[in-house]
C-alpha cells in the first residue's frame, strides 16, 4: 500500500471488533456525501485479530471516499439500494459498496456502506457475496428509519457488520470443501444404518432436498455432526458447498442467516438456542436435524416462508418507525406482534410428506460396494435425474400458463403427467425448480404478496 494517501477526515470514529482467528475483511466503513466537503467517512469498523494485510485509518478513509465518487448525480427511486463492486488492482483490494439515500442532520444525503477485502480473497468472497449483500440491505432499511428519526445509525449498522466479520472469519477456517470425498460421509457405510438409523437418514436427506438444500445440523458430538453436514453437502453444487460450514470442535458458532448447511454444537446443558429472527430471514426454508435424538423437522415450503418472512420484516420496520426513542427498541429485538400480524414462533414442523425418490436412492446406493467411486457416480446420476425432472416441471408450467400470462390451474394434471403423485416427490422437484426459477412456489400455489415490495417504502 502507498503511504502517500491523504490523511483521514477529522474525528472519524473507529470501532475495533475482536474476531477469533484470521478475518479476511480489512475494514468496513460508513460514508456520506457532504455537499460542501464532498465524500466524508463517518465510521470505520476494523477487525482486531490475525490479518494478512494491514490498512492504516488514512488508507481506509481514502478507499472509502472512492466509493462515493460519481454519486453526486445519483437518481434512484425511494428506498433503492445500489450494490457496486470495485476492484482496485493498484491498491490490491476489492470494495463492495451499498449506495443508498438517507437523512443526516436534516439533509438528504447519498450514503455508502462498504466492506474492504484484499484482492487475494476475491475467490473466497464471491460465493458469499449474495449472503453479505442481502443481510446488509435489510440493516440499511432499519438504518434509514433510524436516520429519519435523527437517531444514531452506527449502532444499527454494527448489529450486522460485527456478525458478518465473524461469519467471514469462521468460513475461512471451517467452510465445507468444494470437493467432498464420499468416504467421509454416511453414504460410504457398509450397510444402511451403520452410522445412523435408516429412517432418520431418509428423512434428513428428503427434508434437506425439500427445503432447497438448506439445513442446520445440531448435536453434542462434533464428528457426528460434521459427518451429517458432509453427507447433506453431497447434494449441493460446489458453489453452494462454499456457502456451508462445518461445526467447531471446542465451541459452537452462532447460527448464520444465508448459509446452506451449517453444523452447530450444543452447549454443556445439551441445548442450542436458535434466533427466531435470523432463521426466518433465511432465503430458503430450513431443515432442523438433531443427531443426538435423531429428529428431523422442517420449515413451511418456499411460498409460505417468503410470505411470513416479508410480513415479519414489514412488522419489524413498522415497530422501529413507531419507536419514540432509541432505547424503546434495540435494533435486533424480535417483534412479537402488531395490529395485523402475529408470527408463529414454532416455525419448525414434522416432516409430513413421504417420498419415493430418496427412499429408492438410499435403498439402491447401499446395494453397491462401498469404498469405490461407484456410489459417487450413482449419486451424480440421481442429482441429474432431479435436475431434469425440475426442468421438465418448469417447461410444463410454462406451456400451461403461456409463460406466465395465465394463472396455473393444472396441479393435479402436472402430478399425474410427470409422475409426481407422491407429495414428497413433488416437494423435492419443486424445490430444485425454485432454485432455477425463483418465485415458482408463489406462482403455482398462489400465495403472492399483494403489494409490490412493501420493503421498498422503508
Structure description:
- This protein has 458 residues and is of the alpha/beta class.
- The chain has 14 helices and 11 strands.
- The strands form 2 sheets. Strands 1-3-2-6-5-4 form a 6-stranded mixed sheet.
- Strand 2 and strand 3 (38-50) form a beta hairpin.
- Helix 3 (129-148) packs antiparallel against helix 4 (153-174), helix 5 (198-210) crosses helix 13 and helix 11 crosses helix 13 (423-436).
What oligomeric state do these chains adopt?
Answer: single chain
Distance between the termini: 39 Å
Instruction: Give the SSE string.
Output: EEEHEEEHHHHEHHEHEEHEHHHHH
- Identify low-pLDDT runs: 1-9, 447-458
**Helix/strand structural class:** alpha/beta
- Large-scale geometry: globular
**% residues in beta strands:** 15-25%
With helices defined by DSSP (H or I, 4 residues minimum), what is the helix count?
Answer: 14
Major sheet details: 6 strands, mixed
Name the strands of the widest sheet in spatial order. 1-3-2-6-5-4
Average pLDDT for all residues = 85
How many strand units? 11
Radius of gyration: 24 Å
Amino acid at each position: 500500500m502507498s503511504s502517500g494517501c491523504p490523511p483521514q477526515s477529522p474525528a472519524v470514529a473507529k470501532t475495533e471488533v475482536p474476531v477469533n482467528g484470521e478475518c479476511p475483511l480489512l475494514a468496513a466503513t460508513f460514508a456520506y456525501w457532504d455537499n460542501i466537503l464532498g465524500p466524508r467517512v463517518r465510521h470505520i469498523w476494523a477487525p482486531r485479530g490475525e490479518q494478512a494485510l494491514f490498512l492504516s485509518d488514512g488508507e481506509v478513509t481514502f478507499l472509502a471516499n472512492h466509493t462515493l465518487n460519481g454519486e453526486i448525480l445519483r437518481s434512484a427511486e425511494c428506498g433503492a439500494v445500489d450494490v457496486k463492486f470495485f476492484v482496485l488492482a493498484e491498491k490490491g483490494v476489492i470494495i463492495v459498496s451499498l449506495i443508498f439515500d438517507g437523512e443526516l442532520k436534516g439533509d438528504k444525503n447519498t450514503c455508502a456502506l462498504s466492506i474492504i477485502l484484499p484482492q487475494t480473497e476475491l475467490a473466497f468472497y464471491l460465493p458469499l457475496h449474495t449472503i453479505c449483500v442481502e443481510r446488509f440491505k435489510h440493516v440499511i432499511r432499519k438504518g434509514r428509519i433510524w436516520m429519519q428519526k435523527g437517531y444514531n445509525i452506527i449502532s444499527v449498522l454494527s448489529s450486522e457488520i460485527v456478525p458478518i466479520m465473524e461469519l467471514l472469519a469462521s468460513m475461512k477456517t471451517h467452510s465445507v470443501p468444494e470437493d467432498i470425498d464420499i468416504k467421509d460421509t454416511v453414504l460410504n457405510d457398509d450397510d444402511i444404518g451403520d452410522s445412523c438409523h435408516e429412517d432418520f437418514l431418509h428423512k434428513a436427506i428428503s427434508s434437506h432436498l425439500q427445503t432447497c438444500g438448506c439445513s442446520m445440523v445440531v448435536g453434542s458430538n462434533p464428528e457426528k455432526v460434521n459427518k451429517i453436514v458432509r453427507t447433506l453437502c453431497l447434494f449441493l453444487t460446489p458453489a453452494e458447498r462454499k456457502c456451508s460450514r462445518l461445526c467447531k470442535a471446542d465451541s459452537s458458532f452462532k447460527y448464520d442467516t444465508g448459509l446452506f448447511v451449517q453444523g452447530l454444537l450444543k452447549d454443556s446443558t445439551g441445548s442450542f438456542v436458535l434466533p427466531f429472527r435470523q432463521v426466518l430471514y433465511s432465503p430458503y426454508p430450513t431443515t432442523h436435524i438433531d443427531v443426538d435424538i435423531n429428529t428431523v423437522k422442517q420449515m413451511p415450503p418456499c411460498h409460505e416462508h417468503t410470505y411470513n418472512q416479508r410480513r415479519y420484516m414489514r412488522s419489524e420496520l413498522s415497530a422501529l418507525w413507531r419507536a419514540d426513542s432509541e432505547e424503546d427498541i434495540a435494533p435486533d429485538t424480535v417483534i412479537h406482534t402488531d395490529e395485523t400480524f402475529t408470527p408463529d414462533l414454532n416455525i419448525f414442523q414434522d416432516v409430513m410428506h413421504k417420498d419415493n425418490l430418496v427412499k429408492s436412492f438410499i435403498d439402491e446406493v447401499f446395494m453397491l460396494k462401498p469404498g469405490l467411486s461407484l456410489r459417487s457416480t450413482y449419486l451424480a446420476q440421481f442429482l441429474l435425474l432431479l435436475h431434469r425432472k425440475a426442468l421438465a416441471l418448469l417447461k410444463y408450467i410454462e406451456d400451461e400458463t403461456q409463460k406466465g400470462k395465465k394463472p396455473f390451474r393444472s396441479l393435479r394434471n402436472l402430478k399425474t403427467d410427470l409422475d409426481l403423485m407422491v407429495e414428497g416427490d413433488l416437494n423435492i422437484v419443486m424445490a430444485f425448480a425454485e432454485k432455477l426459477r425463483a418465485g415458482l412456489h408463489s406462482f403455482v400455489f398462489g400465495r403472492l404478496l399483494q403489494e409490490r415490495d412493501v420493503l421498498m417504502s422503508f
